[in-house]
Backbone:
């Protein structure tokens, strides 16, 4: 199977690396405005192949995306230290106006997976441009809060001393400052978090909870301050999304996709738990039994994103 990656900077190249190391796909094509960078990344990645799985990796142009089953979009700018994801909107929206039609002209049957920030709004825009070319919204998704959900599960897992694959927890809403950690649904091996901690004599209190929440919500700021960018977590998440699509795995992930209604906000794109399979997003998001407070936080998050989407569409005059 052929996979395209448009924007082969840190995120795009790391997603490719995760695919190489996990043997996902058969052919990867890297496209970037900076052709020299794309070629260098393709060459460097290809030298990892003998240590991993047989895969072809090349740099190319949009026409080389023909036949791709999935195209990841990680083109555009990232945050500088102190910047929020939402501050990237204007710059990255301009990039997407050109990139999305170019991808779909070359690969009209591809599923598009957006990583560029602010990812909820970039996914909404992608779905909008794709719809203008006759592509169903099911075939457009963003990484949403997959990374935040992974951060949440990893930190909870460390605290309770359990494999993170057996800690179930969701972060929903904006992939950004207003995201919602769904504490009421956290479970370890099917047992509610508090019950699990009580049974095992694990300390749990408001201070620990606040510490985990802070480290999830502000992870990107800390990492960007320390090393300029985040890419291992998101690269792994993107490779996982591609694997799910290639193998029609029907996995449930906190991805973002255009929604009819999220906590009373209509026609918006924010992350919710969705089933993902070989043809893209399957049906509507899973209904969650949120507390009143969580629902109100989700309403706030979705309203914020909806407001920015509305402004952007008005500016475009579309
Ligand atoms: N969704 C998530 O959870 C995460 C999203 N990101 C986002 O991913 C995006 C990429 O981040 P990095 O890879 O660190 O940035 P980067 O600067 O390393 O790479 C971006 C690449 O996009 C290319 N590019 C720019 N305009 C283009 C165009 N018109 N056509 C094709 N390529 C173009 C650049 O040449 C560059 O190689 C950023 O918006 C960042 O905020 C980063 C981490 C997590
Ligand atoms: C940069 C970003 O969006 C993140 O690491 O969460």
Residues:
């Amino acid at each position: 199977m052929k996979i395209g990656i448009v924007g082969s900077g840190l995120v795009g190249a790391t997603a490719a690396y995760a695919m190489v190391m996990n043997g996902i796909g058969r052919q990867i094509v890297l496209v970037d405005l900076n052709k020299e960078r794309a070629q260098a990344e393709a060459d460097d990645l290809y030298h990892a192949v003998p240590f991993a799985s047989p895969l072809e990796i090349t740099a190319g142009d949009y026409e080389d995306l023909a036949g791709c089953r999935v195209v990841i979009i990680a083109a555009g700018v990232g945050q500088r230290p102190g910047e929020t994801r939402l501050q990237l909107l204007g710059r990255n929206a301009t990039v997407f106006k050109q990139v999305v039609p170019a991808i779909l002209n070359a690969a009209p049957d591809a599923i598009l997976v957006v990583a560029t920030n602010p990812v909820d709004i970039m996914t909404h825009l992608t779905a909008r441009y794709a719809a203008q070319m006759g592509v169903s919204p099911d075939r457009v998704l963003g990484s949403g809060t997959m990374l935040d959900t992974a951060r949440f599960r990893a930190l909870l897992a460390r605290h309770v001393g359990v494999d993170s694959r057996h800690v179930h927890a969701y972060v929903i809403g904006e992939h950004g400052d207003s995201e919602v950690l769904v504490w009421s649904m956290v479970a370890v091996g099917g047992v509610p978090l508090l019950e699990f901690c009580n049974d095992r004599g694990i300390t749990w209190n408001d201070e620990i909870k606040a510490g985990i929440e802070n480290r999830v919500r502000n992870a990107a700021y800390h990492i960007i301050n320390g090393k300029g960018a985040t890419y291992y977590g998101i690269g792994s998440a993107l490779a996982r999304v591609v694997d799910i699509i290639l193998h029609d795995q029907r996995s449930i992930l906190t991805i973002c996709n255009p929604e009819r209604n999220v906590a009373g906000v209509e026609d918006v794109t924010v992350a919710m738990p969705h089933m993902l399979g070989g043809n893209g997003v399957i049906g509507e998001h899973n209904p969650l039994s949120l507390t009143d407070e969580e629902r109100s936080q989700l309403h706030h998050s979705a309203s914020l994103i909806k407001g920015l989407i509305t402004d952007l569409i008005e500016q475009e005059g579309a």
User: Anything to note?
Assistant: The mean pLDDT is 97. Residues 79, 85, 117, 147, 220, 230 surround pyruvic acid (ligand 2) (CB under 6 Å). The chain has two domains: 2-142, 145-317.
